[in-house]
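[SOLVED] Predicted holo structure with 2-oxoglutaric acid

Edit: marking solved, answer below. Original request kept for reference. I posted the sequence and ligand SMILES and asked for the 3D complex as structure tokens.
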Amino acid sequence: MTLKTLPPEPIIDPDNTKIHRWPDLGLTLIHDFISPSEEATMVAAFHARDPDLNPKRRVSQHYGYHFDYTTFGASETEYSPIPDYITAFLPRLPLQDCIPDQFTVQYYPPGTGIPPHVDTHSMFEEPLYSLSFGSAVPMTFRLAGPNDARKMRLPRRSAMQSEGEGAAPPPPSSVSSQTGGDETVHPSWDLMLPPRSLLLMMGPSRYGYTHAIRPRKNDVVDGVAVPRKGRYSITMRKVRRGEQIKCDCPYPGVCDARIREEMALARAQACPKGQDENDKHTGESAKS
Ligand SMILES: O=C(O)CCC(=O)C(=O)O
Ligand SMILES: [Fe+2]
């Protein structure tokens, strides 16, 4: 069942009308964050590195600490130097005390998208950025519900096949009681991401909402079907390590840290005598 609603109205910054905020959601969209010439440089750099693209597949390039598709966190070892076209805009990011060090540049050929997902909570700091360029696309937001919680607890799936690349961690086999029974599906709404805009997700939009890009060739804008062209984005996150890998957000259903706790508890209950041994492994939580 898909329930759609209109996007919530933003509050426009009176001092800079390019900044739109949804304070209740922790969401900010900054229009014209990069210039057309910066955009052209980024498009050229992307295609110079990957000249032969499959027109049916989303393609990712990683800079800084690589995104790790097995832990859904960041690799400890794989690192690629951050290109100048990224370092150039870092001093303009709105949160200068939390500069990202994990960058995923993605190209979405027309007709491709990214399934609804919640980026991993515990392994990255709260601010989650997406810089858009190329074609405008709508990003679909929906408050996560029991179905999302249940999916995150299904036996292991492939990150690429089922979720966004920032999506949740390897789930436990047990299904939490909080997913039982209630089939509530919250309405979704679309936020149009114009080229050269920067989206910042914090709070509820970061931790409690799924985001997705529908795999469509056309988008309906003001009642008119507009063909999509290629769309690019740079997802930016700051990696957490060691003791910093934790989360106490108010959305336990879709929180990887809570899922790991559930797993550890389920293991301990299933095998009380082996508890010490298991704790040794789950202590390393995110990586196991
Ligand atoms: O392409 C985007 O704007 C978002 C990508 C995304 O959600 C992700 O990489 O987790
Ligand atoms: Fe994401």
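OP edit: The pocket of fe (ii) ion (ligand 2) is lined by residues 117, 119, 164, 166, 211 (CB under 6 Å). Thanks to everyone who chimed in.
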